[in-house]
Amino acid sequence: MTLLELPSEILREICTPVLETERLILRAPRLGDAKAVAKLANDRRIAENTARIPHPYGIADAKQYIAWAHETQSETAFLITLGDDTVIGACGVGQVEGEKPEIGYWIGVRYWDKGFATEAARAVIDYAFDRFDYDALHSSARVTNPASRRVLEKCGFQWTGAGLSRSRALASSVPVDRFRLDRGLWASLKSWGKTKRVA
Questions:
Q1: pLDDT at residue 2 is higher than 90
Q2: Where are any strands of DSSP class E within 67-131?
């Protein structure tokens, strides 16, 4: 069997690196993760603070997300796992044509307030700047989500203004704070972590 004959899920998993931090492993999502992803993401508090997650969120939604993660060429999606492979959230980075490169993340509610979002975001930021020639990364946080704002600020993102973003869960636009991290600032902050690429 050649690489071209491999199923797309396996091929994408081979192409997506595994990132390891002090407490976390970030890897490509697998079909077998659908139940865990659905269980975590089917929480209104998560859906309302993200742009893309619908509510309610079932196994079919998780399977659709996993299929998308293996098909998309414009974004790299990671599941955030603990050392024992327990799925605790997701993080990704990418640039849709004509848009600015952007990072996004979510963590299951039972794993909030433990620093996991910051740790995962830093790993994906390092990956993005090491792998791509982005001048800057962008992100946004709902104005009602100060925890996400703190994650971005701890990663060096600077506030650039307010705006509106579409929320799939709410089927409307919501006010957000917009942030930007320049490559130069990232380079000066890079000593923050012990991220290593395993594969």
A1: no
A2: 75-82, 87-94, 102-107
